[in-house]
Amino acid sequence: MKQSVAFLAALLMASSSWADEQETSTVNTVSETAEAAQAETSTYPISASVSLGYRFNHANFADTEDDDLQYGWQLLTLKGLVGYNFTKEISAYAAFAVDKALSEGYYRAPVAGGASSRTLRQTELHDINLGAAWNFLNIDAAHLSFAGVLDIAIPTSKASQAAGLILSVSPSVSMAWNFKGFSAAAGFAYNYNVNQDPTQQIDCERFPDLCRIHGEDAGQPNALQSIAGNFGIAYTFLDQLTPSFSYSLSNGYQAVKFPHDEYSSPYAQNDSQKGLGMHSTSFALSWKFLKNSSASIYMTTVRSLYTEDGKNVTQPFFDTDSNINHRTSYGVTLTQSF
Fold first, then answer.
1. What is the dihedral of CA 74, 102, 26, 160, to 10 degrees?
2. N or C: which end of the chain has fewer CB within 10 A?
3. Could you give the count of Cα atoms lying within 13 Å of 240 in the half-sphere of its Cβ?
4. Residue 52 forms beta bridges with which residues?
5. What are phi and psi of 337, to 5 degrees?
6. What three-state secondary structure class fits 222?
7. pLDDT (tens digit per residue) in 87-105
8. What does the pLDDT read at residue 269?
9. Whole domain around residue 145: which residue ranges?
10. pTM score of the predicted model
11. What is d(CA 66, CA 73) in angstroms, rounded to the nearest whole number?
12. How wide is the angle at C-alpha 127 spanned by C-alphas 123 and 131, nearest 5°?
């Protein structure tokens, strides 16, 4: 089944929570767009894909003075997606992802679902994504496609349950272009979280002493909404190899609101608290070695938009914020489509 170029671009744009982390979605968007343009037409309305990936960050190569502070992580990830085409323009999908940590992680989260530091993570299920896509416009003469996606995340992950997330809704729009092996995609997404509480709550059954001293409110604001935009380019040659590059920019807004009164600092943010912005880049190479089978390698970096002093914009190509460069990661993925 030939999925529209814009459908895949919008789908991957909306499903950032399914795609493990922000950088993973930017890896796949434009390379998948290029592969979709190469796909053959089929009348069968059901499609599916399964992928197995291995990811690790650059901190695995860094030496630390204290062996108890390990910021390197290694993850094995299994993903699955099932799609159904109601018409040529309207589709629905369901997606899931499961992680297995292969190394010890550094965590300090006394909330429901959190893990203590120096704990080997168990196999964890990400949020399940359900959604629908509408390929609402094709301009054949210009090789352009436009699509919209409405994505709903069901809080099945420990992190979402710890934050008290009830539901996450993400509408998005995207534009894609493909011509003689060249592909480009750009999109914009908005995310809104329905939370039980504006702040995370401590799991008092696991941490009774903390609750007795501090109370059950951890004081950590939950995310309320976020906006994101990305674009990417790719080129397919020999009908098999596709190098690609993607850039993503996002910012979030917290659920806690702070009133302005006579005690407020003139430098303080009032009402909803906004983030400082994040941006990321991805370099990937995909190899389609069989008709429905492909492999890819990639490098991603996610950094704060501004330097620590807030005076300059950071470069998003490699993490130079610390000596261990832990915000840059690498990965390899095998994907089988049906």
1. -120
2. C
3. 8
4. 78, 334
5. -105, 155
6. coil
7. 989 999 999 999 988 876 5
8. 60
9. 5-337
10. 0.79
11. 16
12. 145
The Cα-based distances of 315 to 108, 220, 247, 302 in angstroms read 29, 29, 11, 10
The beta strand positions in 58-164, using DSSP E, are: 74-85, 90-101, 124-125, 128-139, 144-154
Please report, for residues 19, 99, 196, 300, the alpha-carbon distance to residue 78 in angstroms, rounded to integers and kept in the order given: 10, 7, 29, 19
Give CA–CA dist 25/30, Å, rounded.
10
Instruction: Return the amino acid letter for 243.
Output: P
What is the residue whose two structure tokens read 């343009």? Answer: 37
Q: What's the Cα-to-Cα distance from 88 to each of 40, 69, 85, 307, rounded to whole Å?
A: 14, 52, 7, 46
Question: Which amino acid is residue 49, in one-letter code?
Answer: S
pLDDT digits (tens, 9 = 90+) for 119-156: 556 788 899 999 999 999 999 999 999 999 999 999 99
**Sole residue written with tokens 């399940």:** 128
Do 157 and 170 meet the contact criterion of CB atoms below 8 Å apart? Answer: no
133: CATH: 2.40.160.40
Q: How many domains does the chain have?
A: 1
Q: Which two tokens stand for residue 50?
A: 């399964």
The CA angle 141-145-146, to the nearest 5 degrees, is: 135
d(CA 201, CA 163): 7
H-helix or E-strand spanning residue 221: strand 217-221
Tokens 């609750």 locate to: 211
Write out the two tokens for 39: 């796909």
Q: For residue 316, give Cα distances in angstroms to 23, 28, 245, 306.
A: 11, 17, 12, 10
Instruction: Sort 105 into a burial class: Cβ within 10 Å, 0-12 / 13-18 / 19+.
Output: middle
Q: Residue holding tokens 């089978």?
A: 293
